[in-house]
Specification:
The chain contains nine helices and 15 strands. With 292 residues, it is α+β, with helices and mostly antiparallel strands. Helix 1 runs antiparallel to helix 2 and helix 6 runs parallel beside helix 8.
């Protein structure tokens, strides 16, 4: 099939600073403007720590009780983020992949210090630090930083989604306008994930229905979706720290982000991000009974 015409990406007008405009917030305390500015500084600190050990020949790698791997960089990066939060947001709770939960408040920072640890420990540059702020369980601020690729994406509720351009300037991003499944480009994490939930036949049916499918993996395809380059990203077995930072970026770029069942829950261990236009169509397709 020939590639469909790609819609132009509608950028947010002007050269507005993503952290200077006032934001409406649904909570007392720091404004979302302040929270986003802090999240970006947390990402700066995380980038410095993680990049210092990336592709190091003597990188220490251990195995966690769940048999997944953790590197010294995962631990050091989360410690660096927590140290800043402890100093600047001592009243906020924190959930991190490596050190669990501290505090119990409506405002909670959710951290994955290195999303894509297996890539990181093999010297593959597709990994990210994920930083989110949730308020009453709803993601309000999200930063996805991929320093090995020189890229970063961020968003705050009501303020759009942004990335750094090739010239270093911030630019707004927006999802695509593709409105047919047959013209959609999609990404999934792995066949194993779909096999774990007995949905390999559904995945096979999906790949035959769309224009293009690739298993790009981890946080990067969600960011490509927010930039208008993909129309669907779906995963299973994900934790809150895997997706909390991604949700506001997708939503502020005009897309939709839900669990596989269509709910907004972050603890459903699944994620379905789309360009919004196709969200209901994809949900219907994925939940339809397989037919011969």
């Amino acid at each position: 099939m020939a590639a469909p015409n790609r819609p132009s990406i509608a950028l947010y007008p002007g050269r507005v600073s993503p952290i200077d405009e006032p934001l409406a917030t649904a909570h007392s305390g720091p404004s979302l403007t302040d929270d986003l500015a802090l999240a970006l500084r947390l990402a700066d600190a995380a980038d410095a720590v993680a990049m210092a050990r990336f592709d190091a020949a003597d990188l220490r790698i251990d195995t966690k009780p769940d048999r997944t791997h953790v590197t010294e960089a995962d631990l050091a990066t989360e410690r660096a983020i927590r140290a800043i939060l402890d100093a600047e947001r001592p009243d906020d709770a924190i959930l991190g992949e490596e050190f669990g939960t501290s505090g119990d408040t409506a405002r909670r920072w959710v951290i994955d210090p290195i999303d894509g640890t297996h890539n990181y420990m093999r010297g593959i540059p597709v990994w990210a630090t994920l930083i989110a702020l949730t308020v009453d369980g709803v993601p309000q601020v999200g930063v996805v930083s991929q320093p090995a690729l020189g890229r970063r994406w961020w968003a705050a509720t009501g303020h759009g989604a942004w990335t750094n351009g090739r010239d270093g300037e911030a630019r707004g991003i927006h999802v695509s306008g593709v409105d047919e499944i047959a013209h959609a480009s999609i990404s999934f994490q792995s066949i194993e994930q779909w096999d774990d939930v007995d949905l390999v036949p559904t995945l096979e049916r999906l790949t035959r229905a769309v224009w293009r499918d690739r298993g790009y993996g981890d946080a990067l395809p969600y960011m490509w979706l927010a930039e208008g380059r993909l129309e669907l990203v779906a995963e299973f077995g994900v934790k809150e720290y895997d997706i909390a930072a991604i949700a506001p970026i997708v939503r502020e770029a005009g897309g939709r982000f839900s669990a596989f069942d269509g709910s907004d829950r972050l603890d459903a261990e699944s994620s379905l991000a789309t360009n919004g236009v196709l969200h209901d169509a994809f949900l219907t397709f994925l939940h339809a009974e397989d037919t011969p």
